[in-house]
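Crash report, auto-generated. Payload:
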Amino acid sequence: MSKFTNETIDLDLLPKYEDTQLTAPDPKYWNVIAINILLFLAFLGSTLTLFLIFNEQAKNHLFLWIGLFFLLAVLLFLIYRASFKRRGFALREKDLIYKSGVIVETTTIIPLNRIQHIALNEGLFSRMYKLSTLQLFTASGSSGNIHIAGIEVEKARAIKEALLSRLDLSETSSKI
Amino acid sequence: MMSFDFSTPQRQSTAGIIIMAAYTLQQVIRVMFVPMAILLIKSDKASIFYFIIGLMVLLAICLIYAYFYFLKFTFYLDEKKQEFIVDKGVFNRTHLAIPLAKIQQVNINQSFLQKIISVYSVALDTAGTDGKEVSIKAVNEKMAYSLKEHLLNGKSALQGGEHIVAVSLPQNNITEAPLIKINAATLLKIGLTTNYGRSIALLIGFAYAVFHNMKELLKAFDNDHGQIEQFFKSGFTLISISVLLAVLIILLLTTNVIRTFIKYFDFQISKHQQSLLISSGLFAKKNTLLSPNKVQITAYNQNYFQKKIELFNMVLKQAHAGKEQSDKETKNNNMEVPGCSPSEKDEIIQMILGKLPSSGTMYKPNVRFLNLPIFFEVIIPVVIFTVFYSYTTLVRPFLPVAITYVVIVLLMIYINYTKHRIMVSTDFIIKQSGIWEITKEIIEPHKIQSITTFQYPWHKSADVGHVNLHTAAGTLHFKYGNYTEIKQLVNLWLYQIESTEKTWM
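Recovered output after restart:
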């Protein structure tokens, strides 16, 4: 009991999550995003073409439609590029931070002792670039989980192993 | 004194065969109800005889099936693995193993039929990711309570090195003085003031079912010439709307009171070792044992009427399993205390959180909180109305309605803004929200699973942002706060979560 202390916590001296240096996703991941956007645009473009072929009235505004389509394409690329630049994650000693967001800037923090399980997910296009998505699950359901896309497979595995070993550690310590 | 040895496979109470048969029969009838009803109506007298014979055969088959189901249904406690094991199924055998540590709640219930043959059902709520629920449909009272005791305290007892699990049943668990007891007068008050929403839903469902069934019946008699629709049409012209409204309100209140009585009659909370034993119900008595440390969010709310008569409604939210669940399942995990006085409310909070939370520092949202709702709920409708107003004469008589709408909605948005608060003290976070019904949700920082902060680009210069605190029983949102303060709070909460040894469950 003599070791018990109860000092006042100085809020300004606490480690600041917002100042943490974040690791950006692998630059190759931009290619994956670009492929996805292109696929979406191709789908949208083909629908639009069909619409223009079969709708007599729309033909009068052909250039308007095409112009809108390209505007959307450019906007999509710009927004995703901006969001790609903003993405990042950091593994701190006691928690994991992930920042993302297309328009809204979202930061999610999961304390390591609240992680329920971890999964590695490799998508079709991600696999072509040897990238993977690290998924961290908590007991709070989908809203409080983190999916970090675009980490090199090797690195993701290393992080997963490190986190898992820590989970085991905390589990055994809590049992004693 | 009676004891049970749960280390060897146990069967249910023999009387349970009746329950099982009734249950099977009920399911069969539910599936075949409409064809059977039509058959019964359309058939002549001779075939009714065969129909009754058919029913008897069905009953016999159900009884035989129930008998085999009874034979094949066994359950026991595996001491070594610390698991509760259930084997069941006549054709498809199912082997369920539930780790004792994952058992959240043990509910002992009694339906009307079960009451007649004096057996109880024991249902286990698990926190497993599979969200599977186990229920044993028929055991006698002593075994039910003994089993509950074992399942909830089994862990410690087993670790104590006991080889044969045989714990005597405490005789006083029913006679123990309850912490809170809700009497009929309070129930009446509750029925008159709360939960209108659910009663409305119930009434609509009922009205639809009656309407639908009457049409079916008339169709069966080949007599459907749209009488019902006709009745409704003439009804609306005959009865003035105001009388109809009054009838509806009386109907609503009556349903509400009846529903409240059925669900919460003889509502009691008593302390049972480390847990709370909650029981209620008019026809079917529902018992729930709740351990305080499994409660994730402690919430209480009060609407305008309840405030006048000093009644609180409390909800104790427990962790729902990792997976997404339906609303119904989530609701099942929530324990509701329909009405309690301020002192009783404090007593429950004390039981669950260990002490009464001080309000701490209060954080208010920025005025920008008002922007979006005003834009979507006031400005856009007003613009649309104005457009119609200036081009057609059709909507002109509704001008007073429109003005009332704008005033009421503006007032509601403003009240919502003034009630949206978060109170932070060292040990607790209290989120307050609501318009008509003000809810306060209390959590302890170590129950937080993860934290999300977010900000719209156009709020950057104003330093406004939002924070979501995710817990295993739901998320607490605080919107439009000062982002610098929010970040500071998040850092504090992270420190609290990461430095404590306390687990969330």
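Post-recovery validation: DSSP finds five helices and six strands in chain A.
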